[in-house]
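Field guide to reading this record: the first block holds the primary sequence, the second block holds the structure written as discrete tokens, and the final block holds curator observations. Each block starts with its own label. This record concerns Mitochondrial carrier protein, catalogued under organism Australozyma saopauloensis.

BLOCK 1 — SEQUENCE
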Amino acid sequence: MNTTPQGDNLLTALAAGCTASGLAALFTFPLDFAKTRQQLTNQAARTEHKVYVNIGSISHVMTGSSALVAGSVVKNFSRIVSYNWASNFMAIDTRSEKKKTSAPRVVIAAAMTGFMESLWIVPFERIKTTMIENRLLEAEKAGNLNPALDITRGKLKTHHKNSVTARQYLLPHAYYTSEVVNMLKSGKTHSKFLTHTHLHGQAHLDALKIEFNKTPALTFFKTVRQMYALEGIHAFTAGTMITLLRQCGTSAAWFSTYNATRQLIDPHGNSAEPRWFSRQIGTTQQSFLYLVSALATVAVTQPIDVVKSHIQLKNGKLLYKDSLTTAYKLVAKKGFWLLYAGAFPRGLKIAAHGSLTALLYSYVEKSLNVMGNEFVFTD
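BLOCK 2 — STRUCTURE
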């Protein structure tokens, strides 16, 4: 009697998947830090005003990794549970008296899964971006060669004909007070006709921003407290739609490229029911598939990722309105190629993350199966 190999049970998939995803996110985080740093750095302004970055240890580069790892674990948990429920819900009976999910329904289940997991990662993406900004804030303050110049307060001079930002370097990773935002947008100071209530509310927020610029949060929970103090619950929802768009684009580009390339490599493959991570092909071919898929993903979704990073900045809600406006402003001010800033480290991260996750999943799965067959407290 022939038996068809079954996929992993749900508990094994959850344990192995969450562990592998978290470890892979931790190992590849330096690439994520490099990507975000390239996207958010105004190197021309730094060079002009002789402000340098002092990032000298691995702990500096790993700032924000806790948020990414937590987000990866939650995302993977949601992915497996959602996909398992959706595929079982849409399964149909077959002649062998077993339920099977048809190919079109698998696509629908995958789309539902992608939507659910994307919702979970939005808060963690915002926290990660804020933590990286805080590290860059500390680094630029330490690398400022002019101690007399407060690059976090933005005491801009408005009596000059030139642009208000042309005469002084303003640290982009600091929280901007209401006066700085008003100067950046209009070149004018606060109106004298603002109401007392408005002034009182702004004064409180401005005081918090000045304090947080002096002592930026570099840990997960302290960052969450500072974000909540300034923006409330809305601090963790910024960039929701653009993040969903990036996730959908990433999944579509990655899986379609992966499947198409794999079909070219092994056009007559007749593997059994797919497991969470199939190992039917060789390691070299698998690595090649991840690399090609990563390149396609970056080519399609990198502009979306750059726009998302800017919308999720500390001052993103103050400086940008929506995704299209943000993209237009970035291209108009810094050129089209800014939309591909950080493409190289992000491509490496996507390729390495996929390979590491598959490898770690396999090892953790084998370990769990071995431990599952062991018995304790026996005579």
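BLOCK 3 — OBSERVATIONS
The mean pLDDT is 78.
The CA atoms of residues 175 and 209 lie 6 Å apart.
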